Amino acid sequence: MYGFLIACAIALSVFLCTKEEKRLGLPEDFSVDLALRMVPAAVVGARLYYVIFQWPLYAENPVRILYIWEGGLAIYGAVIGGAAAAWLFARKRKVPFGTLADLVAPVLILSQAIGRWGNFFNGEAYGYAVENPALQFFPMAVQIEGVWHYATFFYESAWDFGGFLLLWNLRKKGMPRGCLALLYFAWYGTGRAVIEGMRSDSLMLGPVRVSQLLSVLLAVSAMIALIVKLRNAKKQAAS
Question: Environment class of residue 185 by beta-carbon count within 10 Å: exposed (0-12), middle (13-18) or buried (19+)?
């Protein structure tokens, strides 16, 4: 079911991007060619990210790294891998990376919103146990082996869908190139930083939740860059 949802998310994303590429003046089938590069790179990145922070599970039998059907894909690794492939593709096709990033940002967060429901069917990515009986109902919580846990996968899915609506509505507002992508990182990073603190299965580096730390850094950096970019655009418009 998880794989089916991811496949649906990819198909919907490519469809929406093909509609947007015309508006942005990009070549026909640009989005399809981009997806053929980004998706495999995202899978590899997602797997490597997970393996790095769970290395003791694979140290004695490294061939298990290839067993992705056993689970173990991290979204930040997918973003890093996909972004690297997109950057190389932009250089090859001589398209500004900011344009490409703005094309992908809305559908990326939509895909994340859809993909999180795979966690529901897999019974994973949930939070700590819910002790208050008044909160023991879905979607506030999810029952795992008879115990109610915070439904963190649902919180993130709802947050991501809200981010998609925001980005999709802003895409035609004439924002400077790259602003949609920066807003994606600011929005997603903020939500993920909060929700990650509620999860019971975080990837850890010592006492630090890796994805939470990365989310904070990305959100703050993206907010600063976004403010600077918008201020510069405003100054140029006024001059």
Answer: buried
- Among candidate residues 107, 105, 113, 109, the one with its CA nearest the CA of residue 157: 113
Residue whose token pair is 């649906």: 8
Q: What residue ranges do the domains of the chain occupy?
A: 2-238
Angle, CA 157 vertex, CA 128 and CA 55 arms, to 5°: 60
Length of the chain: 239
Half-sphere exposure of 149 (CA within 13 A, CB side): 20
Distance CA 62, CA 237 (A): 56
Tell me if the pTM is above 0.85: yes
**Half-sphere exposure in the Cβ direction for 143 (13 Å, CA):** 6
Q: Mean pLDDT for each consecutive 10-residue tract of the chain (239 residues)? A: 91 95 89 96 94 91 88 90 96 94 97 94 93 96 95 97 97 93 98 96 91 96 97 87
